Amino acid sequence: KDEDLELASDSSEMDIDSPAVPSVSSPVPGALIDCYTNMASNVDENNPRQDDDILTHCAYAFPGVVYTLGKDSWSLLRNTYLTLAENLPHSMSNVRQTLACSLHEIAHVIGPEQTEKDLIHPFNNFIYDIDSVKIGLLKNLSKFLQNVSPQYRQDLLKQMKEIQKCEDRKNWRYRQTFASQLPHLSELYTTEEVYDHIQPIVLNLTVDQVSQVRQASFVALSKLLQKFEKQSDKCFYETTCETIRTKFACSNKCTYRQSYALICLELLQDEQYEIIENSFINNLLELVTDRTPNVRLWVGQCLLLLHKNTKNSAVEENLSKLQSDSDKDVMHYSTHVHEATSPVSCT
């Protein structure tokens, strides 16, 4: 009878070939669970590739199976997961990629204790795997870390540089994905940890060769500045602002000066008008007469947003100059609000 069934208290002692014993609240018969787990356990060791499709489907369905059975039945599925994640030939990366994409979902179901006990080792393996596996993990990295202890999150900071590494330098989407995770990761750490470990990575990505990567890093940098500015000690905030002004606004490279305007624009789109007026407005106004139209273009967009939301005579005066600029694109962007997708580059 169902009420007579009990889970083994120690999942590490479970035999993968023993009959499945679901929790008393599970609507799934044990025989059906056996059929699922046997998909991974009955692999032909001499020719595992012939089971590739079966194993991929098994991995794809795993989050749904865990969700259906619930946390209390994790011991029935643990060995199956570890088999799929760690005991298959390295060439079967599609199985690991599928698991990496859903790791955060499994962690959410089974909770922090079991996550740290059973999922950390696969997680660490995925970090050092090929790019197609790593990017699956990367897309939901912050969600996974929400289900582990603060101590483990701190340990992960030491692996940030390894996570950032990419086998193929041309794979800019990997760097873009990584940059898009940094704002969410910064919410999980203290201001000092963010400044020491995440801020240098963000600043490095702001000079990436690909505009989509740079734009994702500008979003992250805006979030970091907001986090630093809220602290009573403004040291991290002031140092970061000075780095931005020196590195970008005062640069001889037009792409860097354009980046300065786009960083300001990101802050403005986050409605951080006070940060702009206190820390960035002077350099922004100096770029009104920049020799490169694409720099003036984004400066005009910044001044337009400032003019719509603040009262500043200097902003109004310089915006009028750009609205009568000799370049028609500068005139247009100084008059109409656009998203900061940075479709143009300096020439």
What does this 3D model show about the protein?
67% of the residues lie in helices and 0% in strands. The protein has helices spanning 30-41, 52-69, 74-86, 93-127, 131-138, 141-145, 150-157, 160-164, 172-186, 191-205, 211-229, 235-249, 254-269, 273-286, 293-309, 313-323, 328-333. The radius of gyration is 26 Å and the shape is elongated. The relative contact order is 0.06.
What's the short story on this structure?
By secondary structure, the chain is mainly α. The chain is built from 17 helices and no strands.
What is the secondary structure topology, with strand pairs?
Blueprint: H1 30-41, H2 52-69, H3 74-86, H4 93-127, H5 131-138, H6 141-145, H7 150-157, H8 160-164, H9 172-186, H10 191-205, H11 211-229, H12 235-249, H13 254-269, H14 273-286, H15 293-309, H16 313-323, H17 328-333
